[in-house]
Amino acid sequence: MRLKGDLAAGAAILSIVILGVVVSGAGDRADVPAGAEAVTSGSQGLSDCVDCLAEVELVAPTATPEPTPTATPAPAAAYDSIPVEVEASAFAILEAPCRALLFGKDEHLPLPPASLTKIVTALTAIGRVDLSEEVEVTVSASELQQRTRSSVMGLEPGMVVSVEDLFYGLLLPSGNDAAIALAEHVSGDVETFVRLMNEEAERLGMHNSSFSNPHGLGSRGMRSTAYDMALAGMAMMRDPTLAAMSGTFSYTGSTGLRLTNGNQLLGTYAGSYGVKIGYTRSASHTIVAAAARDGRDIYVAVLGSDDLYAEAVGLLDWAFGSTEPQCTGAPTRG
Question: Could you tell me which CATH class the domain 2-7+16-322 is placed in?
């Protein structure tokens, strides 16, 4: 990505200390970012490495307040252009909690969201289950990897795990096995759960989105937009449980599986506290990133990127450094 002119001095990107970790397959290779260099602004392309994350303490975020109900989202702010050139297919920059659109590029264009789909999966499931419930696993991670090169948390038939384990497996290593197991536990079958996902998306105002599975691997009818995914990210951060999970670096489940968060902005970009990354061949790299600074909360959603972290960082830096607050009087994360 190329930056034109001087951006306001954004927060420094720290070096990522890579520890050898986890279980988890490489994405479709869905969701798996590159190593320590991935977050620097000059990175080109992201590899399929798993578990490339710093072991840094992060305070679990509090929930983003619900926006004031309105008939339609807040209008875009009056910015005609930005000095950041982004080559991704689409992006949207929104301010929470009023959902003001600061700037976008094809932000309402339906595109494959990859594993950002799992944000909607989590929102659909969280109010329908108890985290302590036990689930007898029927899905096989090894079979999924063999057939689709899926990212997985490592489930195999016969395992008994908690619903909490499945949520962490869904959001940290972006396990497709976790998405299927959670969907089947909530609704009895994946098809019924997907109907609930689309109802949830409509409720959130994601009017240009359609989901056909709970994990995000490409299939017909699987589409969302940068704007819609930013809305979904905000909704996830309003849930205290999901917000805390999204900002967790690592988690060891009841079966001993150790899971690591694939979002490399956590602990490396000042104020970053979520949300999720994704990748498939058809979608390329995707992200919803959230960061708080100077009493403001900014959400950036990027779809179809070949330089994921550099583009997300450039957009966040511009939003914090070059825009005026749009959610005047609204409580925000400080």
Answer: alpha beta
**pTM here?**
0.80
Could you confirm whether 284 is annotated as catalytic? no
Q: Which of 43, 174, 187, 212 is catalytic?
A: 174
**193, 210 contact by CB (below 8 A):** no
Please confirm whether the linkage preceding 61 is cis (ω < 30° from 0).
no
Domain ranges of the chain: 2-7+16-322
Catalytic: 219?
no
Torsion of Cα atoms, 151 then 254 then 182 then 239, to 10°: -100
Distance set, CA 243 to CA 36, 228, 330 (Å): 24, 18, 19
Cβ burial, residue 334 (10 Å; 0-12/13-18/19+): exposed
Active site residue 118: yes
Q: Note the Cα 295 to chain centre separation in Å.
A: 22
- Among 118, 140, 224, 305, the active-site one is 118
Question: Each residue of 154-169: pLDDT tens digit?
Answer: 999 999 999 999 999 9
